[in-house]
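Table 4 source record.
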Amino acid sequence: MHRKELSYYVSGFFTQYLGNEAGLSINTIKSYRDAFILFFKYLEEAGICKISKLKMDTLNADNASGFLDWLEQSRGSSISSRNQRLAALKAFCCYVARKSPEESALCQGVLKIRVKKAPQRPVEYLSVDAVEYLLKMPDRHSTQGIRDLAMIALMYESGCRVQELIDLRVGDITFRSPNTVTLTGKGNKARVIPISANAADIIKAYLTSASICNMAHSVFVNIYDKPLSRSGVSYVLDKYGHMARKARSELYPSKLHPHILRHSKAMHLLENGVNLIYIRDFLGHSSVTTTEIYARCNPELKRKYIEQAGSLITESVEEYSESEKEALIDWLRKNI
Protein backbone atom coordinates (compact mmCIF):
# COMPACT_ATOMS: atom_id res chain seq x y z
CA MET A 1 0.00 0.00 0.00
CA HIS A 2 1.40 3.38 -1.04
CA ARG A 3 2.12 5.60 1.96
CA LYS A 4 0.81 9.17 1.72
CA GLU A 5 3.11 12.15 2.25
CA LEU A 6 2.88 14.56 5.16
CA SER A 7 1.75 17.35 2.82
CA TYR A 8 -1.35 15.32 1.92
CA TYR A 9 -2.50 15.20 5.53
CA VAL A 10 -1.56 18.82 6.25
CA SER A 11 -3.64 19.97 3.28
CA GLY A 12 -6.71 18.00 4.37
CA PHE A 13 -6.27 19.06 8.00
CA PHE A 14 -6.42 22.78 7.16
CA THR A 15 -8.72 22.88 4.14
CA GLN A 16 -11.35 20.36 5.22
CA TYR A 17 -11.12 19.12 8.79
CA LEU A 18 -10.51 22.15 11.07
CA GLY A 19 -13.17 24.47 9.69
CA ASN A 20 -15.78 22.00 8.42
CA GLU A 21 -15.66 18.91 10.61
CA ALA A 22 -14.12 20.23 13.83
CA GLY A 23 -15.86 23.60 13.53
CA LEU A 24 -12.94 25.51 15.03
CA SER A 25 -12.81 29.30 14.97
CA ILE A 26 -10.75 31.26 12.46
CA ASN A 27 -8.38 32.32 15.25
CA THR A 28 -7.73 28.74 16.35
CA ILE A 29 -7.09 27.70 12.76
CA LYS A 30 -4.64 30.59 12.37
CA SER A 31 -2.89 29.53 15.57
CA TYR A 32 -2.55 25.95 14.25
CA ARG A 33 -1.28 27.29 10.92
CA ASP A 34 1.38 29.34 12.71
CA ALA A 35 2.43 26.26 14.68
CA PHE A 36 3.09 24.33 11.46
CA ILE A 37 4.92 27.25 9.85
CA LEU A 38 7.23 27.34 12.89
CA PHE A 39 7.61 23.55 12.89
CA PHE A 40 8.73 23.56 9.25
CA LYS A 41 11.07 26.46 9.98
CA TYR A 42 12.61 24.46 12.83
CA LEU A 43 13.12 21.39 10.62
CA GLU A 44 15.03 23.48 8.07
CA GLU A 45 17.09 25.45 10.62
CA ALA A 46 18.03 22.27 12.49
CA GLY A 47 19.08 20.63 9.20
CA ILE A 48 16.56 17.81 9.65
CA CYS A 49 14.59 18.23 6.46
CA LYS A 50 13.78 20.78 3.76
CA ILE A 51 10.13 21.69 3.31
CA SER A 52 10.24 20.34 -0.25
CA LYS A 53 11.24 16.89 1.07
CA LEU A 54 8.84 16.41 3.99
CA LYS A 55 7.97 12.80 4.75
CA MET A 56 5.37 11.42 7.16
CA ASP A 57 8.19 10.05 9.33
CA THR A 58 9.37 13.63 9.89
CA LEU A 59 6.53 14.10 12.36
CA ASN A 60 7.97 11.90 15.09
CA ALA A 61 8.29 12.35 18.84
CA ASP A 62 11.99 13.32 18.72
CA ASN A 63 11.44 16.07 16.15
CA ALA A 64 8.34 17.32 17.94
CA SER A 65 10.20 17.49 21.27
CA GLY A 66 13.15 19.21 19.61
CA PHE A 67 10.76 21.73 18.08
CA LEU A 68 9.19 22.53 21.47
CA ASP A 69 12.60 23.05 23.08
CA TRP A 70 13.66 25.24 20.14
CA LEU A 71 10.60 27.43 20.66
CA GLU A 72 11.60 28.11 24.26
CA GLN A 73 15.36 28.28 23.94
CA SER A 74 15.90 29.91 20.53
CA ARG A 75 12.73 31.95 20.08
CA GLY A 76 12.04 32.82 23.71
CA SER A 77 8.48 31.50 23.59
CA SER A 78 6.56 31.22 26.85
CA ILE A 79 5.52 27.86 28.27
CA SER A 80 1.95 28.74 27.36
CA SER A 81 2.94 29.29 23.71
CA ARG A 82 4.94 26.07 23.73
CA ASN A 83 1.88 24.17 24.95
CA GLN A 84 -0.33 25.82 22.31
CA ARG A 85 2.05 24.64 19.56
CA LEU A 86 2.03 21.14 21.03
CA ALA A 87 -1.79 21.18 21.04
CA ALA A 88 -1.73 21.92 17.30
CA LEU A 89 0.60 18.97 16.60
CA LYS A 90 -1.51 16.67 18.75
CA ALA A 91 -4.74 17.73 17.02
CA PHE A 92 -3.07 16.96 13.69
CA CYS A 93 -1.87 13.54 14.88
CA CYS A 94 -5.38 12.65 16.07
CA TYR A 95 -6.68 13.61 12.63
CA VAL A 96 -4.05 11.51 10.84
CA ALA A 97 -4.60 8.47 13.10
CA ARG A 98 -8.35 8.52 12.38
CA LYS A 99 -7.85 8.98 8.65
CA SER A 100 -5.04 6.42 8.29
CA PRO A 101 -4.86 3.91 11.16
CA GLU A 102 -1.59 2.56 9.75
CA GLU A 103 0.06 5.81 10.93
CA SER A 104 -1.20 5.38 14.50
CA ALA A 105 2.11 4.16 15.93
CA LEU A 106 3.94 7.23 14.61
CA CYS A 107 1.21 9.56 15.88
CA GLN A 108 1.14 8.00 19.34
CA GLY A 109 4.72 9.12 19.91
CA VAL A 110 3.68 12.77 19.56
CA LEU A 111 0.42 12.28 21.48
CA LYS A 112 2.36 10.97 24.48
CA ILE A 113 4.38 14.18 24.83
CA ARG A 114 3.22 15.90 27.99
CA VAL A 115 2.35 19.56 28.27
CA LYS A 116 4.85 21.55 30.29
CA LYS A 117 3.63 22.96 33.58
CA ALA A 118 4.11 26.68 34.00
CA PRO A 119 4.37 28.48 37.33
CA GLN A 120 0.96 29.97 38.10
CA ARG A 121 1.08 33.75 38.10
CA PRO A 122 -1.34 35.73 40.23
CA VAL A 123 -4.31 37.14 38.35
CA GLU A 124 -3.82 40.86 37.74
CA TYR A 125 -6.96 42.96 38.15
CA LEU A 126 -8.08 46.49 38.99
CA SER A 127 -10.06 47.64 42.00
CA VAL A 128 -13.53 49.13 41.52
CA ASP A 129 -12.03 52.58 42.22
CA ALA A 130 -9.38 52.04 39.55
CA VAL A 131 -11.97 51.06 36.94
CA GLU A 132 -14.16 54.06 37.80
CA TYR A 133 -11.21 56.46 37.53
CA LEU A 134 -10.05 54.89 34.25
CA LEU A 135 -13.49 55.55 32.75
CA LYS A 136 -13.04 59.27 33.47
CA MET A 137 -9.95 59.52 31.26
CA PRO A 138 -11.40 59.57 27.68
CA ASP A 139 -12.76 62.86 26.33
CA ARG A 140 -16.42 62.02 25.74
CA HIS A 141 -16.90 65.20 23.65
CA SER A 142 -14.83 63.87 20.71
CA THR A 143 -15.70 60.95 18.44
CA GLN A 144 -12.47 59.14 19.28
CA GLY A 145 -12.89 59.81 22.99
CA ILE A 146 -16.47 58.54 23.10
CA ARG A 147 -15.39 55.48 21.09
CA ASP A 148 -12.63 54.75 23.60
CA LEU A 149 -14.98 55.28 26.54
CA ALA A 150 -17.57 52.96 24.97
CA MET A 151 -14.90 50.33 24.34
CA ILE A 152 -13.49 50.39 27.89
CA ALA A 153 -16.98 50.43 29.44
CA LEU A 154 -18.10 47.47 27.33
CA MET A 155 -14.93 45.47 27.98
CA TYR A 156 -15.48 45.82 31.71
CA GLU A 157 -19.26 45.39 31.78
CA SER A 158 -19.33 42.34 29.53
CA GLY A 159 -16.00 40.79 30.55
CA CYS A 160 -15.40 40.12 26.85
CA ARG A 161 -12.22 38.79 25.31
CA VAL A 162 -10.34 41.09 22.93
CA GLN A 163 -11.28 39.04 19.88
CA GLU A 164 -14.94 39.08 20.93
CA LEU A 165 -14.75 42.88 21.08
CA ILE A 166 -13.08 43.11 17.65
CA ASP A 167 -15.67 40.77 16.08
CA LEU A 168 -18.65 42.64 17.56
CA ARG A 169 -21.23 43.93 15.06
CA VAL A 170 -23.88 46.61 15.64
CA GLY A 171 -26.60 43.98 15.33
CA ASP A 172 -25.09 42.08 18.26
CA ILE A 173 -26.18 44.85 20.66
CA THR A 174 -29.81 45.15 21.79
CA PHE A 175 -30.78 48.63 22.94
CA ARG A 176 -33.94 47.92 24.88
CA SER A 177 -34.59 46.90 28.46
CA PRO A 178 -32.74 44.79 29.33
CA ASN A 179 -29.84 46.03 27.19
CA THR A 180 -27.73 43.07 26.06
CA VAL A 181 -24.71 42.23 23.94
CA THR A 182 -24.25 38.90 22.16
CA LEU A 183 -20.63 37.76 22.23
CA THR A 184 -19.24 34.95 20.09
CA GLY A 185 -16.38 33.26 21.89
CA LYS A 186 -14.10 30.28 21.50
CA GLY A 187 -15.55 27.44 19.46
CA ASN A 188 -18.05 29.89 17.95
CA LYS A 189 -20.15 29.65 21.12
CA ALA A 190 -22.44 32.65 21.58
CA ARG A 191 -23.55 34.04 24.93
CA VAL A 192 -25.89 36.92 25.75
CA ILE A 193 -24.60 39.35 28.39
CA PRO A 194 -26.69 42.08 30.05
CA ILE A 195 -25.16 45.58 30.13
CA SER A 196 -26.23 48.60 32.15
CA ALA A 197 -28.31 51.47 30.77
CA ASN A 198 -25.28 53.73 31.31
CA ALA A 199 -23.01 51.58 29.15
CA ALA A 200 -25.74 51.24 26.50
CA ASP A 201 -26.18 55.03 26.38
CA ILE A 202 -22.43 55.55 25.92
CA ILE A 203 -22.32 52.99 23.08
CA LYS A 204 -25.35 54.61 21.41
CA ALA A 205 -23.74 58.06 21.69
CA TYR A 206 -20.57 56.70 20.06
CA LEU A 207 -22.42 54.99 17.18
CA THR A 208 -24.38 58.21 16.55
CA SER A 209 -21.22 60.33 16.68
CA ALA A 210 -19.45 57.99 14.23
CA SER A 211 -22.56 57.69 11.99
CA ILE A 212 -22.54 53.90 12.29
CA CYS A 213 -25.99 52.38 11.79
CA ASN A 214 -25.56 49.32 9.53
CA MET A 215 -26.36 46.21 11.63
CA ALA A 216 -23.51 44.28 9.97
CA HIS A 217 -20.94 47.03 10.61
CA SER A 218 -18.14 46.50 13.13
CA VAL A 219 -18.83 48.42 16.34
CA PHE A 220 -15.27 49.52 17.07
CA VAL A 221 -13.34 50.87 14.09
CA ASN A 222 -10.26 52.99 13.45
CA ILE A 223 -10.03 56.27 11.50
CA TYR A 224 -10.06 54.25 8.25
CA ASP A 225 -13.36 52.58 9.22
CA LYS A 226 -11.61 49.23 9.63
CA PRO A 227 -12.17 47.00 12.69
CA LEU A 228 -9.72 47.70 15.48
CA SER A 229 -6.86 45.22 15.71
CA ARG A 230 -5.70 43.52 18.91
CA SER A 231 -2.73 45.88 19.05
CA GLY A 232 -5.09 48.83 18.50
CA VAL A 233 -7.20 47.81 21.50
CA SER A 234 -4.04 47.34 23.60
CA TYR A 235 -2.76 50.77 22.58
CA VAL A 236 -6.00 52.53 23.52
CA LEU A 237 -6.24 50.85 26.92
CA ASP A 238 -2.61 51.45 27.81
CA LYS A 239 -2.90 55.09 26.72
CA TYR A 240 -5.62 55.78 29.25
CA GLY A 241 -3.90 53.59 31.82
CA HIS A 242 -0.85 55.85 31.50
CA MET A 243 -3.02 58.94 31.95
CA ALA A 244 -4.74 57.51 35.03
CA ARG A 245 -1.45 56.30 36.51
CA LYS A 246 -0.05 59.84 36.48
CA ALA A 247 -2.69 60.96 38.98
CA ARG A 248 -3.38 57.73 40.89
CA SER A 249 -0.24 55.60 40.53
CA GLU A 250 -1.17 53.44 43.53
CA LEU A 251 -4.22 52.08 41.70
CA TYR A 252 -2.54 50.74 38.56
CA PRO A 253 0.15 48.28 37.41
CA SER A 254 2.91 49.51 35.08
CA LYS A 255 0.96 48.47 31.97
CA LEU A 256 -2.69 47.71 31.31
CA HIS A 257 -3.39 44.74 29.05
CA PRO A 258 -6.89 44.17 27.57
CA HIS A 259 -7.51 41.03 29.62
CA ILE A 260 -7.18 43.01 32.86
CA LEU A 261 -10.71 44.38 32.52
CA ARG A 262 -12.08 40.85 32.04
CA HIS A 263 -10.17 39.72 35.14
CA SER A 264 -11.43 42.77 37.05
CA LYS A 265 -15.07 42.07 36.23
CA ALA A 266 -14.74 38.44 37.30
CA MET A 267 -13.10 39.39 40.60
CA HIS A 268 -15.69 42.06 41.36
CA LEU A 269 -18.53 39.61 40.70
CA LEU A 270 -16.87 37.05 42.96
CA GLU A 271 -16.23 39.59 45.71
CA ASN A 272 -19.94 40.43 45.61
CA GLY A 273 -20.91 36.83 46.24
CA VAL A 274 -21.84 35.81 42.70
CA ASN A 275 -21.69 32.04 42.21
CA LEU A 276 -18.73 30.63 40.26
CA ILE A 277 -21.09 28.78 37.92
CA TYR A 278 -22.69 32.05 36.85
CA ILE A 279 -19.28 33.68 36.40
CA ARG A 280 -18.17 30.70 34.28
CA ASP A 281 -21.15 31.23 31.95
CA PHE A 282 -20.69 35.01 31.99
CA LEU A 283 -17.05 34.71 30.88
CA GLY A 284 -17.73 31.90 28.42
CA HIS A 285 -15.42 29.39 30.10
CA SER A 286 -15.96 25.77 29.09
CA SER A 287 -15.21 24.55 32.63
CA VAL A 288 -15.62 26.04 36.09
CA THR A 289 -12.06 24.85 36.79
CA THR A 290 -10.82 27.74 34.65
CA THR A 291 -12.98 30.17 36.61
CA GLU A 292 -11.64 28.93 39.95
CA ILE A 293 -8.36 30.80 39.44
CA TYR A 294 -10.18 33.95 40.53
CA ALA A 295 -11.24 32.40 43.83
CA ARG A 296 -7.73 31.16 44.59
CA CYS A 297 -5.91 34.44 44.01
CA ASN A 298 -7.75 36.53 46.61
CA PRO A 299 -6.86 35.92 50.31
CA GLU A 300 -10.26 37.12 51.51
CA LEU A 301 -12.10 34.80 49.13
CA LYS A 302 -9.82 31.96 50.18
CA ARG A 303 -10.79 32.65 53.81
CA LYS A 304 -14.47 32.44 52.83
CA TYR A 305 -13.81 29.08 51.17
CA ILE A 306 -12.21 27.81 54.39
CA GLU A 307 -15.26 28.95 56.37
CA GLN A 308 -17.58 27.26 53.88
CA ALA A 309 -15.49 24.11 54.07
CA GLY A 310 -15.71 24.19 57.86
CA SER A 311 -19.49 24.30 57.70
CA LEU A 312 -19.46 21.12 55.62
CA ILE A 313 -17.56 19.16 58.26
CA THR A 314 -19.70 17.77 61.09
CA GLU A 315 -18.61 16.08 64.30
CA SER A 316 -19.72 12.71 62.97
CA VAL A 317 -17.50 12.34 59.93
CA GLU A 318 -18.50 8.69 59.84
CA GLU A 319 -21.84 9.74 58.35
CA TYR A 320 -20.09 10.57 55.07
CA SER A 321 -19.72 7.82 52.50
CA GLU A 322 -16.30 7.18 50.98
CA SER A 323 -17.31 8.92 47.74
CA GLU A 324 -18.58 11.96 49.68
CA LYS A 325 -15.32 12.15 51.62
CA GLU A 326 -13.34 11.99 48.38
CA ALA A 327 -15.51 14.73 46.85
CA LEU A 328 -14.99 16.95 49.89
CA ILE A 329 -11.22 16.41 49.86
CA ASP A 330 -11.09 17.14 46.13
CA TRP A 331 -13.12 20.33 46.65
CA LEU A 332 -10.78 21.49 49.42
CA ARG A 333 -7.70 20.67 47.37
CA LYS A 334 -8.91 22.73 44.42
CA ASN A 335 -10.14 25.75 46.30
CA ILE A 336 -7.85 26.24 49.31
